[in-house]
Amino acid sequence: MSIEALKERIPEFAKDVRLNLSTVANDETLGQQTKWGLLLACAVATRNGVVREAIDEEARNHLDPAAHDAALATVSIMAMNNVYYRFVHLSSNKEYAKLPAKLRMNVIAKPGVPKVDFELWSLAVSAINGCGMCIDSHEKVLVEAGVTTETIQTAVRFASIVQSAAVAIEAATLPVAA
């Protein structure tokens, strides 16, 4: 399935989502590897098989195997980190923040793609997963690397569009109102 086929699966009540998917597919703001790695990581983060398969098919046309694996590694490590650090951040017991995480995160040091790509992908997935602590951490690294506010905003905008596609497809499975 391609993004065009994915757009066809988006119901009429979510036509803005279709339009936004077209915008993302044609957007040249980010480099091809950056964009397609980001879209793939976000698609997996939605946990929606239809979205994941459609974006993965497109992403394979733009990513070499190492970058494809790096996008999957990004979403996997963020699945762990977003749960853990969101808990640390939201817990009223601040003692947890003083304890070592004791989580293996070697991929952060050697992600297999340029660090800026990994950080943008991590930020976008963290936005989907709602981890403020991780959002702040990745955004800080990106700013320190000289990434513009507009580029960071584009990454999160793309994440929001991918997430909205997943929600629209899920909503389409609900029974029709009488």
Give the termini separation: 32 Å
Question: What is the helix tally?
Answer: 9
Anisotropy-based shape: globular
Gyration radius from CA atoms, angstroms = 17 Å
Strand content: under 5%
Task: Describe the overall structure.
The protein has helices at 3-9, 15-26, 32-46, 49-59, 65-90, 106-109, 115-129, 132-144, 149-172. Helices cover 71% and strands 0% of the residues. The chain has one domain: AhpD-like (Up-down Bundle), CATH 1.20.1290. The mean pLDDT is 94. The protein is built from 9 helices and no strands.
List the SSEs and their pairings.
Elements: H1 3-9, H2 15-26, H3 32-46, H4 49-59, H5 65-90, H6 106-109, H7 115-129, H8 132-144, H9 149-172
Can you give keywords for this protein?
178 residues; mainly alpha; AhpD-like; 0% strand
